[in-house]
Amino acid sequence: MENNLLLEDEINQISEINYEVDDVLTLQRAGALAVNQLVAEFIEFGAVVDNQLIATVLVRFKDLQVRDYAMGLVNNENKDKLFNLWYWLSNYAPTGFIAPVACIFAACAYESAESQLAENALDRAIGDCPNYPLALLLRRVFSAAWPSSSFAAMRAELHPRICATLFGSSI
User: Fold this and answer.
1) Lowest mean pLDDT: which of 4-8, 57-61, 136-140?
2) Which of 28, 101, 113, 139 has the most CB atoms within 10 Å of its CB?
3) What are the CA-CA distances from residue 140 to residues 2, 88, 108, 144, 156 (Å)?
4) Residue 73, CA distances (Å) to 52, 94, 158 in order
């Protein structure tokens, strides 16, 4: 409970991107780099304890580029670790910040043939934000029984484009 209060304090110190006045690309890039750091720490240590880092990622996940960047990081070498990371983070995130990470976890679960976990994650996302567009899209994809390999291929094709937008190249 105390950890969640500390996380919420950190979240409250980070402004969401104001697309009218902020240097959007700089904030998106910083968000993607925070995602990289979060992933690296989780892969190396099996946990992340830096609430400021977690808060930065959760707030930046409100931006579609950053969220989609994170979704594209999953590959054959890291899919099990990232499956665990997104599951953990979706349960650690406070209300109002669950939907993006729950959708990332749902996509990982779907690609891992864990359809019930994927559906449960979408339920959490929709419970957090009833009209969250990615959750509604994924619900349709899963209901249509779209092959997970096709979904993974589409995600892998999209990731280099997002990297080019954020960094000028793929990383």
Assistant:
1) 4-8
2) 101
3) 37, 25, 16, 6, 20
4) 21, 23, 11
- CA distances 10 to 21, 40, 50, 71, 107, Å, are 23, 21, 10, 23, 27
Q: Domain range holding 71?
A: 2-167
Residue 107, classified by CB atoms within 10 Å of its CB into exposed (0-12), middle (13-18) or buried (19+), is buried
Global pTM? 0.93
Please give the tally of structural domains in the chain: 1
pLDDT digits (tens, 9 = 90+) for 100-110: 999 999 999 99
| Spatial contact of 25 and 48, defined as CB atoms under 8 Å apart | no
How far is Cα of residue 154 from the mean position of the Cα atoms in its chain? 17
